[in-house]
Amino acid sequence: MNTMQDAQAKAAQLPWMPQRKLDHIPGDYGLPLFGHTFAFLKDFQSLVNDTAQKYGLVNRGSIMFQRGVSLLGPDANEFVLRDQAHVFSSRAAWNPLLEKLFRNGLMLRDFSDHKFHRRILQQAFKKPALSSYLDSMNPHIARGISQWPQGREMSFFKGIKSLLLDVGAETFFGLEMGRDAQRVNDAFVAEVDASLAVLRVMIPGTTWYKGMKGRQFLEKFVTGLIPERKAGNGTDFFSELCRAAAEEEGPTLSDEDIMNHMIFLLFAAHDTTTSTLSSIIYALAKNPEWQERLHQEYLDLGKDAVEYDDLNNLQQTTWVFKEALRMHPPLPTIPRRTVEEIEWQGYTLPRNTLVSVVPLHTHYMEEYWSDPYRFDPERFSPERAEDKKHFYQWIPFGGGHHKCIGLNFAELQSKVFLFHFLRNYRVEVTPGYTMEYQQVPLAMPRDGLPIRIQPLA
Ligand code: HEM
């Protein structure tokens, strides 16, 4: 078995292009040159299901000019994500997409190096830190929602994206709303937009150019604030991270590391939570009885703001949160690359194979979920506990070494939003409306999710 140091060295030597000799694995490469790219972009879930039915739970394919192998089902999720043999590199899989814009973020680190950084970052996600984020999050979210139009159509997606950006400027960076916060938000949005750009050259006016300029602005802005945040006693995420780095005995994070982590964390936090809340609100608009149940849960709490210790008591909200993430995991697929040859279920995966596990497939497997296409939050109740058959059957946050470090933060922010929203408003969609999902690279409503909100008496 590899040690982490060995694996680290092997990952650094992987060629840029993933392995192409995978013909010994069942599957096909689809169309010449394009492979399965069109089906992938149009309806990823059907592509994965059809391929699994035709070839089984280990299959090969070609998407976006890269050949790779999908390993499906909870056992495969455990094998890849838990990675006891230290053979699956996250950095080598994600870097081609994210390296220039989100350099050296936590997900783009591997093995011992990753472990070291993750341990320090973890400080900013501990209970006292999370509790303090709530102090600014509660009033900010309540105020933001109160400014949404009532009784007429609005795009939920646009509304929640902009609200979470504003809240993020305060919670993550400790910025009051104003010029700095707006500039940070604009730079960040440009960077995220650029992560999907096909043309990646520095030509003024292009999405890529704007994204790289956004990155340059953020680098300067964040680095400039580090001395102040290290010395201060701020309760924002940035201050927590700066202090965690400063208080570490022995080797610690450099200012450049802190800057890279902050920019990556914003990226990892933002669209994923926007996606989750869009799925939840869509499901609640279609299932008004669940809206009523959550509304009642918030009235029963008998408070005007959510505190950290309330979060575990919001049981029905927890089920809804989990069910929305089951049905629409924001990251429908999670990639890795092998740093050396390894066997899985009788198949040899050569060194440098692009391997994907697919939460969107596991989350609908009938062996694990009853009537999987139905929105049914009670499947997570202690009485039914459908999610407890396998530790790796519900994996919207991934698992193992790279399991989402922000999962509690995401749950907390989602619950704070739902509390302030559903305590005061009813949400509706046009009768008969069905939201179309863009599934990749992140689950999002294609039409922005048009809703109407009505104040409750
Ligand atoms: C519901 C919202 C979220 C979902 C569904 C989600 C999902 C994920 C997934 C699937 C991974 C693992 C990726 C992989 O293994 O390659 C991940 C990693 C990560 N997430 Fe999240 N995430 C969410 C919110 C957040 C938030 C709010 C933050 C920060 C405040 C965050 C920060 C990160 C970071 C830093 C990593 C990399 C962890 C590592 O490599 O050790 N995420 N997330």
Radius of gyration: 22 Å
Strand order of the largest sheet: 1-2-8-5-3
User: Can you name the CATH architecture?
Assistant: Orthogonal Bundle
The first-level CATH class is given as: Mainly Alpha
Note the overall shape. Answer: globular
| H/E topology pattern | HHEEHEHHHEHHHHHHHEEEEHHEEEE
- Measured between the Cα atoms of the first and last residue, the distance is 63 Å
Quaternary status: single chain
Helix content: 40-55%
Distinct bound molecules: protoporphyrin IX containing FE
Percent in strands: 5-15%
Q: How many helices does DSSP assign?
A: 15
CATH H level: which superfamily? Cytochrome P450
Derived structural class: alpha+beta
How many structural domains are formed by the residues? 1
- Report the count of strand segments: 12
Mean pLDDT: 95
Overall description:
The structure is a single chain. With 457 residues, this protein is an alpha+beta fold. The protein has a single domain, classed as Cytochrome p450, CATH 1.10.630.10. It is 50% helix and 10% strand. It is built from 15 helices and twelve strands. It has helices spanning 4-12, 37-55, 74-82, 91-98, 111-121, 127-146, 156-173, 179-194, 207-231, 237-247, 255-286, 288-301, 315-327, 359-362, 407-424, and strands at 58-63, 66-71, 88-89, 154-155, 334-338, 342-344, 347-349, 354-357, 425-428, 437-438, 444-445, 450-455. A five-stranded mixed sheet has the order 1-2-8-5-3, with helices on both faces. A three-stranded antiparallel sheet has the order 4-12-9. The protein has a two-stranded antiparallel ribbon with strand order 6-7. The protein is globular. It starts with a helix and ends with a strand. The model has no long low-confidence stretch (mean pLDDT 95).
